[in-house]
Design a protein that fits this description.
184 residues; alpha+beta; Immunoglobulin-like; 4-stranded antiparallel sheet; 3-stranded antiparallel sheet; 2 helices; 35% strand
Length: 184
């Protein structure tokens, strides 16, 4: 006969094995869900980068300058400002610009990406059309504070008052480009 202690051990072991099996299945399911969300996010990021390359000939950046702000909340802060024009046949709901400051030797001094045009996301990866957007044949102005601007660049901007792309400087150059773009 099987002793009562053996039956209890068999029963508890079976419960423990079943519990480990259920926890393993749950962990695998969570892994697949997170992996799927990451893949979707990577897909959307890749698509917005591809859109930036495809639409760059229809999106015009003009009057882009680096300077020290003079108005209200931008006062005495290094900023980039300019205008974005949409000459495509699509409505733009999000655009990300990249800014790179270099010295005359080509060394990178400062890099920043920012969204001059971005919809409200409501904590999802699918943008909602409740915020700003750029319609076909429309133009919008932007101003962005350079949050971690190097002290020597800031001092140069204070002295110079304004600095445009392609302008010869005493030691700094800047480039900007469209990094990501989402169209409707």
């Amino acid at each position: 006969m099987i002793k009562q202690k053996s039956i209890i051990v068999i029963f508890l072991s079976s419960i423990l094995i079943a519990l480990v099996f259920v926890v393993t299945l749950l962990g695998f399911y969570l892994y697949l869900t997170i992996s799927e969300d990451d893949n979707e996010l990577q897909y959307r990021e890749s698509l917005s980068e591809l859109n930036a390359k495809l639409y760059e000939k229809y999106i015009y950046l003009s009057s882009v300058v680096l300077k020290v702000g003079t108005k209200e909340r931008f006062r005495n802060k290094p900023i980039i400002e300019g205008r974005i024009s949409n000459q495509s046949n699509k409505t733009i709901i999000s655009i990300q610009l990249g800014l790179t400051l270099t010295d005359n030797d080509g060394r990178t001094l400062y890099v920043e990406s920012f969204y001059p045009l971005r919809p409200d996301a409501y904590l999802t990866v699918i943008p909602k059309r409740t915020g700003s957007y750029l319609a076909q044949n429309d133009t919008v102005s932007f101003i962005h504070i350079l949050k971690r601007c190097p002290a020597d660049v800031y001092a140069y901007l204070k002295e110079k008052h304004e600095f445009a792309k392609g302008e010869k400087s005493d030691g700094f150059n800047f480039e900007y480009k469209i990094k990501k773009l989402i169209v409707e």
